[in-house]
Amino acid sequence: MENNSTFQEEEVCTKNDGFKYMLYSSVFSIVFVVGLITNVAAMYIFSCSLKLRNETTTYMMNLVVSDLLFVLTLPLRVFYFINENWPFGSLLCKLSASLFYTNMYGSILFLTCISVDRFLAIVYPFQSRMVRTKRNAKIVCCAVWVLVLAGSLPTGFLLETTFPRSVNSTGQYCFENFSPKQWKSHLSKVVVFIETVGFLIPLLLNVFCSIMVLQTLRRPRTLNRGGRMNKGKILRMIVVHLLIFCFCFIPYNVNLVFYAMVRTKALRGCMAESVVRTIYPIALCIAVSNCCFDPIVYYFTSETIQNSIKRKSQVSRSYDIKFSEALQSETSSAFHSLRTLKTKMLSNESTV
To answer: 162 in helix, strand or coil?
Structure first.
């Protein structure tokens, strides 16, 4: 009797997230264009234009790679959401799904690395000199990649990610519409892992580092040593970090917990399922937009990049000034020569 009532309750709860396909296709198209342009530009600056590199730029370069890997899979997702069919096979679906989680939690962890690096540089500037090296930064980045891939690859590749839409349909789902059995056996454990390691711990670290840096900046010695300009840059860095972290990642990760509870039937009720299913696509689109916001972090947190851009603009400006001065000099000398030649010709004519 209990099973029948549960079955009836599940039948009554209708899905109300049909709007997600239009939303996904629109937002993902914008993210693909903006994310590709900004991250390719950032990659060019890091690889070709930026001569001076430090620990922060090492973390940023890895963040760019993570963003680009995900952005390049977005056209496949846009095609799927427009046509509501995945014709590219199971392997590409698994790869696309894995790269989504690699990007999201890779971005969270690399942003956390930047925040911790700045915390050490400001709060413990002398003690952290031996720790804050480019070699150690590369080791940390390798550890982040191992950790992220250990969480994302099993999610994408150990599950059957493509399903037929109906018995008589040739259309295929891609990484959605998993059964409650799969949620209980595997996906719920993945959610616990990524929420703890990939979101909660980094969130606490970001908040802790930001509070400690702000307390350090309030000390008179720090103000006298760093000056108002450095303080302003550090404050902008903290604000940008926290805004991007909170705006992009908190809505999705909080809603993901409730979504997992709904899918595993730990949270019952049509109202709860309706609210969670409505919020999920919106929160997912906000999370995906981090590819577009990460380049803002590159600008505000890397003083080296700003100095490099300023140096290039100054060199270009001085070159333009020198070129215009040379052009004016050559033009005036040419006019002077023409004037002299004309005078000679007139004098010759007068003698004739």
So the answer is: strand
